[in-house]
Amino acid sequence: MDKKLIIFTDLDGTLLDRDTYSYQIAKPLLQKLKNKGIPLIFCTGKTRAENEYYQKKLKINDPFIIENGGAIFIPKNYFTFNPLISRKREKQIVLKKYYVIQLGAPYKKIRKALQKIRKESKFKIIGFGDMTAKEVARDAGVSIKMAQLAKKKTYNESFIFSESKDKEKILSEKIKQSGFQLVHGGRYYNIMGKNTNKGKAIKILTKFFQKEFKKIKTMGMGDSLNDLTMLKAVDIPVLVQKPPGIWEVKIKIKNLIKIKNIGPQGWTKAVKKYALQEI
Ligand SMILES: [Mg+2]
């Protein structure tokens, strides 16, 4: 029997264009994946509200991982078993539509730590929590509606760090000392729980898929350093390029597949080749 393929994908700069957030080029493949019964799991720095927005747009009903591994959302009745039963160690929430496994530190604590660091270091730090939706919209180049969704953070804070590159190390150290970690996504710096990452969330979901389908194979697609743990946690790790056509140099994995195209162009090529066997 063939192994069932499960795809985990980053959104910003991978399935979505880094600058325009467009996914048009990838769209025709989504139906093909659906027809083949291949789950497409978003694994992103984005919030629950943003994930739900893109799931609706792309007609996807699979589980998703929010805020760099902060929580896993699993639609009820998605698996033939209750996934919460085997995960007693993690915090769990049962919502109307989902089972949720929480892995991240709460937003309030993260904000407090960031504010303390800013006060002590006098670094120029502006978090999403300091900005209005209008300001986030202008800075990220998104609509006010999308900015409102992006501001609904629960397990991490994105921020602008307007200091020289050498101060980044000091910032990272200060964040570590306060019990959190610094992660650099595509556009923003992120502060989040020290034990939170995409890979950890993927490993948990992979166990559920194994239980459901027995023989599985996992593929992961990303573009940035915050995808490293994701790419390490899958059988087929795929790295797409960032504009203007470069691979993230800090991602070094033995079996890494480097696709010679940027963002969604690379995503499309990888899915055609490794998931649909079209090329
Ligand atoms: Mg990305």
Description:
The chain is α/β, with parallel strands linked by helices. It folds into two domains: 4-104 and 196-275, HAD superfamily/HAD-like (Rossmann fold, 3-Layer(aba) Sandwich), CATH 3.40.50.1000; 107-193, Putative mannosyl-3-phosphoglycerate phosphatase, domain 2 (Threonyl-tRNA Synthetase, Chain A, domain 2). Helices cover 34% and strands 23% of the residues. It contains nine helices and 13 strands. The protein has helices at 27-35, 48-58, 107-121, 133-140, 144-150, 167-177, 198-213, 228-232, 263-275; strands at 4-9, 40-43, 64-66, 71-75, 91-94, 98-102, 125-127, 156-161, 180-184, 189-193, 216-222, 236-241, 257-262. It has a nine-stranded mixed beta sheet with strand order 5-6-4-3-2-1-11-12-13, with helices on both faces. Strands 7-8-10-9 form a four-stranded antiparallel beta sheet. Helix 4 (133-140) packs across helix 5. The longest helix has 16 residues, at 198-213. It is globular, with a radius of gyration of 18 Å. The mean pLDDT is 96. Bound molecules: magnesium ion (MG). The site of magnesium ion has 7 residues, from loops.
Mind sketching the topology for me?
Blueprint (H helix, E strand, L loop, with lengths): L3 E6 L17 H9 L4 E4 L4 H11 L5 E3 L4 E5 L15 E4 L3 E5 L4 H15 L3 E3 L5 H8 L3 H7 L5 E6 L5 H11 L2 E5 L4 E5 L4 H16 L2 E7 L5 H5 L3 E6 L15 E6 H13 L4
Parallel strand pairs: 1-2, 1-11, 2-3, 11-12, 12-13
Antiparallel strand pairs: 3-4, 4-6, 5-6, 7-8, 8-10, 9-10
Helix pairs in contact: 4-5
The site of magnesium ion has 7 residues, from loops.
